[in-house]
Amino acid sequence: MQKVNTWYKAQGCCPMEAFELASYFLFEAGVATLEEMDIKEVENPKEGLTYFCFFTGDITERNRIVSEFPQYNWVTAAEPAKDWDKWWRDRAQPVSVSPRLWVRPPWVNFTPDDPNSVVLELEAKTAFGTGEHNTTSSTAALMEAIDFKGKSVLDIGTGTGILAMFARRLGAKMAVGTEIDPLAIPCIAENFERNGFGKSDCVLGFLDVFKDNVKFGVIVCNMIRSELWPLRDDIENLLAQGGHLVISGQLETEKHYVLDWFKEAGFVVDEERVSGEWWSVRAIFNG
Asked: For the whole model, what pTM was predicted?
């Protein structure tokens, strides 16, 4: 790999309430790491705005993203390269994902005050989901009200495996994750082994990998509506009667689509959560 001698920076801003959505769009566009800036780092900051930045060693890539999202009022610059991996590792801290779930980097020692807390040792690498996003946090919080003891769990689009591992720690007898990104599979396997679960039960592929008679007591799905929507029939077929479905990654402005589906399919809403722009829900299947 060619050594990067110059990092190309782009600093942007948006209304505070829009930052979660902006970060989602930028990650989807190819931004690897987005840093929310301390207001002290910003020259002439304006009230009500969140400032953020990203770096890349490819000026063409930076300019592409900047031109794709002009609404973020970018300021660009270049600076000599430094060891960003070391910088990031030095700043990494344990993350409180939900009232019971904590995530810590492998190199950070941490013991929570509450002995009932679950601590997962996690490093994202090539997979998505270290617990810092609102949608992951809301999903974990909704999962905490479910009695997982003896249940089988399906985590659709498992990413790092964080929610599947959380389900196991909450008492699930099995937690199967699906993932369509082959680059995420080694990361998932490493995370399961690192946290004492041995071999992961996660599989590469779509929901048609499961046989017709397979049923899960709990299904968790943290993904945007355009990805969730084609999976509705499969979810209904895979979820046991009386089972719990936890859905996250939905914009609050679009929640009526999910609620209409629930009404038609026989789901009863148990709890809803709103965090920033995002809406999450736990429902019981009585279809």
From this structure: 0.71
